[in-house]
């Protein structure tokens, strides 16, 4: 449940962040960015202490594993396949960088700025703002690739959207079906509390 909730909430917030930026709703853009920061911190913590399929150690594989999967020599099990793991890490990494840049960004009039923008020079803030705007194109490209992969697998008969809604999936008989260890509710609450505290601390630095 935490991963599915994270996935769909992040997707919605990225879309809203784009919309609020385009419509110059900069106060809402900032709030959306801080919400994304909370989600990213939670996901990083959950990647170490959450359910077995959510842990980075379970699905992040080396080049050999990725190549074997591409060649069809390795069956996928529960969770992300080695190729899908690259997509996850890429999307998380670029989203994290995009969010970090936004913390230092400011609008042209200086009326709205990220909470850390006052900690750096105006020139550097301007440069990071330009990078923040440009990096969105990279993030958009990764999202398009992500959607293309979903369509590709759907054509091959493997539906990925359903499991991300229901949490239920069919596993190939030849797959490595190690027993899944669900995450504990209290761990999720602790991770959320830490993420909220860190997000609040970053927000307070702009006051």
Task: Supply database-style keywords.
8 helices; single chain; 207 residues; Fumarate Reductase Cytochrome B subunit; mainly alpha
Write a brief structural summary:
It contains eight helices and no strands. The protein is mainly alpha-helical.
Describe this structure in words.
By secondary structure, the protein is mainly α. The protein has a single domain (2-204), classed as Fumarate Reductase Cytochrome B subunit, CATH 1.20.950. It contains eight helices and no strands. It starts with a helix and ends with a helix.
Number of strands: 0
Low-confidence stretches: none
| Helix-strand makeup class | mainly alpha
Shape summary: globular
* Largest sheet geometry: none
**How many helices does DSSP assign?**
8
Overall average residue pLDDT: 87
- What's the N-to-C terminus distance? 35 Å
Number of discrete domains: 1
Report the helical percentage: 55-70%
Q: Judging by the overall fold, what is the CATH architecture?
A: Up-down Bundle
Report the top-level CATH class: Mainly Alpha
Secondary structure elements and their pairing?
Blueprint: H1 2-22, H2 26-49, H3 56-59, H4 63-70, H5 82-104, H6 122-155, H7 161-166, H8 185-204
